[in-house]
Amino acid sequence: MPGANDAETLIVARDLAREYRVGSSTVRALDRLNLTVRRGEFLAVVGVSGSGKSTLLHLLGGLDTPTSGSVCVEGRDLASLRKSERTIYRRTTVGFVFQSYYLVSSMTAEENVALALTFQGAVGPTRRSKAAEAIRRVNLEHRMRHRPNQLSGGEQQRVAIARAIVHAPPLLLADEPTGNLDRATAGEMMALVRRIHEELGTTVVMVTHDEETAAQAADRMVRLRDGRLVDEGASTP
Predict the structure, then answer these.
(1) Whole-number Å distance between alpha carbons of 160 and 168
(2) What are the sequence ranges of the domains in the chain?
(3) Could you tell me where the DSSP H helices lie in 138-217?
(4) How far is CA 147 from CA 143, 162, 192, in A?
(5) pLDDT in tens, 4-45
(6) Average pLDDT for residues 207-218, to the nearest whole number?
C-alpha cells in the first residue's frame, strides 16, 4: 500500500474500524478496512444498506473519528487533528454531496451556493462571482434566482453539487447522490459529476447501493460488505 505521504496518494485508510453502542450491544460498522485513493481518482464504493458506506464517508470527511485505525488525507491523520482543525479541514479540503439536498428553502439557488463561501471569508462581489461560476458549471444559470420549491429534484441536486465545489476542494465526497432521482435524471447527474471530476481534477469518492450508477462514472469500484472490502471491480473504459 502506498504511504500516506506518497505524492500520488490522497487518502490512506489503515485498519479502519468504527463501532457504535446500540443499547447493550456493540455494532461494528467498519471492520479493519484498508483503502487507498489516488489523487485525481473517481472511486465508487458499492454496498447494500448497512454495509458501512456512509460510516466510511463520514470518517473520510472528518465528520466522525474511528474507534481504531487511521485515516490520512494529504498526509494528515484526521484523528490527530483538534476539533477546530477538523472544521478547517472540512471547510477547505472537502466538498459534500448527500442524498438529501439540504438547501435553505428561503434562499435562491445562487444564495444557497454563496452561503457555503461565508465560511471561506469570501464577501461581496467575490462571493457572488464564485457562486455564479459554480452555478454555471452545473448548467443551472437560468434557474439561479429560483428557490428550492421552484426547482425539480435534479435541479436541487445540481445546486447542492455547485455548493460542494464552489470553494474548489481537492476532495468531493458523495453519499448516494442519485438516491432521490429517477433513472434518467440519475444518469445526467453522474455525467455531470464525471465532467466536474475531469475538468477540475477533483478526487471523488462516491458511495452508492447502485452498481450500474457507479459503473457509469467511476474509474474504479470497490464493494463493501459488513464493514469490509470484499472485492474490486474493473475500471470503466
Answers:
(1) 14
(2) 102-168
(3) 153-165, 183-200, 211-217
(4) 9, 15, 21
(5) 556 699 999 999 999 998 888 888 899 999 999 999 999 999
(6) 88
